[in-house]
């Protein structure tokens, strides 16, 4: 009885932009996980200096895993950048700060205080303002 | 209460250096991404993307050095400085407009960083 025509969504710039946003949002989750691994590994690095850090990135399991995730993150980001303006897409990454702050408290038991909470909130507000920029 | 963790100034400066390298990496990713035509191949075999990856790796080494000491909840948000650099490079290299809104956003991000350092 019902023969309603379902018109397919127009594939245009809006969809590209949405896809771009979703990719970047995914980056924030992957990026936060990577940071937790990187901090975990970096804290145990004993070899000093610049080359000590490079060797640790290859041999320290959490660090290596963290940077593998980071590499994956980078691929997602390059794909996202194909459809988005650099000054608009990149700041969305700042959402990662929220996840990292929360995970720092929960996993590393780092103390939270008013200044830190306000600081992260203001940074995220800055990101939100950027999203409202006319060029978006 | 857990024992206080001191975040040294040297770690903070290392994150600043890392954020600068990272923002330049971003510039080359963007240059490479817009320069490549359709297809993944043109994206992979692209010197701009390679240079972007190299700059990201440099940024990562400085970041590991920074992460050795101090609190993640202080050091990680400092990476947002990279956003400020990126807006400046976007203006200089891609001619993207630096609107009042973007200026306001940069102001907020910088204010946030100041607050974070007060909470150190």
Q: End-to-end span of chain B in angstroms?
A: 16 Å
**Mean pLDDT across residues of chain A:** 83
Could you list the spans of chain B in which at least 5 consecutive residues all have pLDDT below 50? Answer: none
Rg from alpha-carbon coordinates of chain A? 19 Å
- Roughly how many Å is the radius of gyration of chain B? 17 Å
Q: Which of globular, elongated, flat, extended, rod-shaped describes the shape of chain A?
A: flat
Number of strands of chain B: 0
Task: Say how many strands of chain A there are.
Answer: 0
Q: What's the helix count of chain A?
A: 6
Would you list the SSEs of chain B in sequence order as H and E? HHHHHH
Tell me what portion of residues of chain A adopts beta-strand conformation.
under 5%
> Which percent bin holds the helix content of chain A?
over 70%
- Tell me the structural class of chain A: mainly alpha
Our count of domains of chain A comes out at: 1
Most extensive interface between two protein chains, with residue counts? A-B, 60 and 58 residues
Main beta-sheet strand count, sense and barrel state of chain A = none
Total helical elements of chain B: 6
Q: What is the H-and-E element order of chain A?
A: HHHHHH
Assembly state here?
Answer: heterodimer
Main sheet specs of chain B: none
- Poorly predicted ranges of chain A (pLDDT <50, ≥5 residues)? none
Give an overview in words:
The complex is a heterodimer of chains A (136) and B (120). Chain A is mostly helical and 136 residues long. Chain A has one domain (13-131). Chain A is built from 6 helices and no strands. Chain A has helices at residues 13-42, 49-59, 61-81, 86-92, 96-108, 114-131. In chain A, helix 1 runs antiparallel to helix 3. Chain A is flat. Chain B is mainly α. Chain B has one domain (9-118). Chain B is built from 6 helices and no strands. Chain B has helices at 9-35, 40-44, 47-67, 72-75, 81-94, 100-118. In chain B, helix 1 packs antiparallel against helix 3 (47-67) and helix 5 (81-94) packs antiparallel against helix 6 (100-118). The longest helix of chain B has 27 residues, at 9-35. The relative contact order of chain B is 0.17. The mean pLDDT of chain B is 87. At the A-B interface, helix 1, helix 2, helix 3, helix 4 and helix 5 of A face helix 1, helix 3, helix 4, helix 5 and helix 6 of B.
